[in-house]
Amino acid sequence: MLKNYNFSIDVKKLQLINMQNELQSVVEIPDWLRPRRGIPRMFENEILERLSHVHPITPHIIYVPVISYMLWKSFKLFEFSKIILLFFFGIFIWTIMEYTLHRFVFHFTPKSEIGKKIHFIIHGVHHMYPWDTTRLVMPPAVSILIAIVVFSIMSFIFGDKTYPIYAGTALGYLIYDTTHFSVHYFKAPKNRILRYLWKHHLQHHFQNPNKKFGVSSPLWDIVFRTK
């Protein structure tokens, strides 16, 4: 039944199985983070189960129009030079969000069986089943909720400046989701920067899940010495 969710992606193309020559385990990975094969069923409820499987183009369908609208509003309010500055500030904000969410929310240490179930739903399923190509981008129900909260906070703090800032933050999120999917699905790229990001994230999975939390950027791993 779950094979209907593979979106024509051949799991054999995943290059994670070829990491043995580049990565060697250096820490003891707990069982609830140890990689294994398969596409697990997360929910008994059929609707929730279907919503947990997301096509990689979905975030773009949702957020490209949002980014376009934010930029349209920006050009009605500010000069181009100011928009550029605020836009890149928004991308910078995303890098902080990405690192913080991944390190402190996605990787909280569960102390109970209920905690392990919550962790499994939030992020553990991805570490346990990294070859599941249908769960490589954030489900819209989760990303939209986060997006609303972030926009509300930004509006309270920045007022009209939120439009270009939020556009940058949303683009940062799209870059994150796209990078994450690409790392898990495509083989190692030849470009040095992209290959660095590819290896950086797979080391997080197969070498030490307590390090290398940045996906689209290693910036905060360097700052906080989790590289």
Please explain how this structure is put together.
The chain contains eight helices and no strands. The N terminus is likely disordered. Helix 3 packs across helix 6 and helix 5 packs antiparallel against helix 6. Helices cover 58% and strands 0% of the residues. The chain starts with 45 loop residues before the first helix and ends with a helix. It has a domain of 145 residues.
What profile does the largest beta sheet have? none
Rg, alpha carbons: 18 Å
Poorly predicted ranges (pLDDT <50, ≥5 residues)?
A: 1-26
Number of helices: 8
What best-fitting shape do the alpha-carbon axes yield?
A: globular
Q: What is the average per-residue confidence, as pLDDT, rounded to a whole number? A: 86
| Count of individual beta strands | 0
**Elements, N to C (H/E):** HHHHHHHH
Structure in a nutshell:
The protein has 227 residues and is an all-alpha fold. The protein has a domain at 43-187.
